[in-house]
Amino acid sequence: MVVFFWTRGLRTLQNAAQRSCKRVHYCTAVQAGKKSVNGVELCYQQTGAGDHALLLMPGALGSGVTDFGPQLKGLDKKRFTVVAFDPRGYGSSRPPIRDFPSDFFHRDAQDGLQLMQVLGFSRFSLLGWSDGGITALIAAALSPANVRKLVVWGSNAYVSQEDIAIYNSVRDVSRWSERMRSPMEVMYGAEYFRNTWSAWVDGISQFTHNPQGSICLELLPQISCPTLVVHGQKDPMVPSVHPQVLLQHIPNARLHVMADGKHNLHLRFAAEFNRLVEDFLLE
Ligand code: TYC
Fold first, then answer.
1. Does 106 participate in catalysis according to the annotation?
2. Catalytic position from the list 86, 130, 163, 266
3. Which part of the chain is the AB hydrolase-1 domain (predicted)?
4. pLDDT value at position 27?
5. What CATH fold (topology level) applies to the domain 10-278?
6. Residue 228: CB partners within 8 Å, gap ≥ 6?
């Protein structure tokens, strides 16, 4: 049994969202919103008033609020306009009930890209964590005209037998620690969480039927924007061969390894992570 797991930022941003902007030159509040995108209602958080727009893409069963609290709070609001969205079937973007057809990452990618268009951003950078990073890789490959820069961490472009073994070791959520399970059960209810997590394990396992277990390997050479791959050296969920493969296949990529980082490095080492990402985006 894998007992570590990643910690979702539990801090709710609702209070921040309710705070008014007062008389400051830029808005520091986090606004929650909902837009109709590709036939579903997608929820998102938005903050900041900078020229450089960012879309934050959460991990499996994640949401903007649970996965990106320290980024919504800490990224420079003068330089960036930060949007974090709940993919369909996750967080507050329900209904629909989440499903995992073979193109689910492509569907999330199209949803994220379309949400930014609806919000009025034609060029923006993508920050994706774990599954959200896979989604971001696909979005950057398919829509290069819209994507300025790309940051992904804890992400993989294919699944190996080693990955499948890890997925199956965490399939049964009753064996998760209370600390990891409880926030998900609060967000989803125990039954939706249990079923959707198991469906996710089946969903990601389908890629083993592709040559090389590819999720999006063949798209990586099409990513033309500057790309930062971040990896936690102590990430127990995503073996370190994955960032190496991303680096090999993405033409304009660099790798930054955080020595003490695990899967949730952007939450655990938020200040360091935010600084790293800001420096890369502002280069
Ligand atoms: N990809 C998952 C996410 O998006 C994380 C994860 C990785 C879960 C490996 C299980 O075995 C696993 N957060």
1. no
2. 130
3. 53-182
4. 62
5. Rossmann fold (3.40.50)
6. 149, 150, 151, 152, 253, 254, 256, 276, 277, 280
What is the residue with the minimal CA distance to atom 5 of ligand 1? 130
Q: Which atom of ligand 1 is nearest to the CA of 169?
A: 11
pLDDT of residue 28: 76
Residue from 149, 103, 157, 113 nearest 133 by CA: 157
pTM for the full model? 0.92
Any ligand 1 atom below 6 A from CB of 17: no
Atom of ligand 1 nearest to the CA of 60: 4
Q: Is 235 in the pocket of ligand 1 (CB under 6 A)?
A: no
Neighbours of 14 (CB within 10 A): 12
Could you report the per-residue pLDDT of 189-225, keeping only the tens digit for each? 999 999 999 999 999 999 999 999 999 999 999 999 9
Tens-place pLDDT, residues 163-181 = 999 999 999 999 999 988 9
